[in-house]
Amino acid sequence: MAQPKKESLVLFLVVASVCQAGESNQPVTFRCVTRGDHQVSTRAMFWATNHTTNTFAVSLSAIENKAGSNWIIQWQGWQPLLFQPLGGLAAYQLGPHEAGYATVEQLYCSPTGTVWRAKARLQPALTGSSATAAHLRHYPDLVQRRIQGDTNLPLHPFSTNITFYGESVYVLSQEVSEQ
Length: 179
Known about the structure:
Layout: E1 18-19, E2 28-33, E3 44-50, E4 56-67, E5 70-80, E6 84-85, E7 93-94, E8 99-104, E9 114-124, H1 128-147, E10 169-172, E11 176-178
Parallel strand pairs: 1-10
Antiparallel strand pairs: 2-3, 3-8, 4-5, 4-7, 4-9, 6-8, 9-10, 9-11
């Protein structure tokens, strides 16, 4: 397997279930990529593979440390991941059957000397009648915000510039041991 490129950028997308790393039923495989002795302590690289026909927005939601047989949350938040798929353009979404990597420039907790794992939140992009219903449900709010001066919002109720997302699913990376 070829190593992912390292010059990616990162910036920037209720609980249905949590899938453990390696489960065959998880919609997206989420792994931390270790880079050996040239790893910078404040950077982390993640590789994700979408096993479905859905598009997902993926965000880093927690870093957990192992304490005995328990997992303790070291950092919890929301950090959208910008994925660079092989041969494609960087995007905040992972398309159907797509794989890509994302580099977090500033991993807030910088786990060292412990076993840790990452938790990622997947939000499926709505399509079809679900997307239509979401557009109609949120249209009055969009019009109100437009009247209040947010001119970046479209007036068309079915604009393709706005993506609505479904219920979140969480997946866990593999256990990572760093010294």
